[in-house]
Write a structure and sequence with these properties.
The protein is mostly helical. The chain has one domain. Helices cover 57% and strands 0% of the residues. The protein contains three helices and no strands. α1 packs across α3. Keywords: DNA-binding.
Length: 97
């Protein structure tokens, strides 16, 4: 997955926005943005925050929006595994199985 290059600029902006939301969540949670440290519970918490109502600290996004966010993150993680596996820890070294 290349974020820029062969895509329309509108698509690039959307991907940037979607991945940026996860990075912001992760940075606010841990104080850093090391991709190698992302585990399943982080993604689950992020999705819960996106779905959650604003009065409970969530974002209140519609299910379709949250699904798009999750798909963008999933595609990015797959891209990392193929293009930059050195940025990811081996499964046996991750914080959360």
């Amino acid at each position: 997955m290349e974020i820029s290059g062969d895509r329309k600029r509108e698509v690039e902006k959307k991907i940037d926005l979607q991945l940026g939301r996860f990075i912001d969540f992760f940075r606010n949670r841990y104080g850093y943005e090391k991709v190698m440290a992302v585990v399943k519970r982080d993604v689950t918490s992020w999705l819960e925050q996106l779905y959650g109502p604003p009065e409970k600290g969530g974002e209140g996004y519609a299910p379709a929006t949250v699904n798009n966010q999750q798909a963008a993150l999933s595609r990015f993680m797959k891209w990392l595994r193929v293009r930059a596996p050195q940025l990811l820890l081996e499964r046996s070294h991750q914080r959360d199985p």
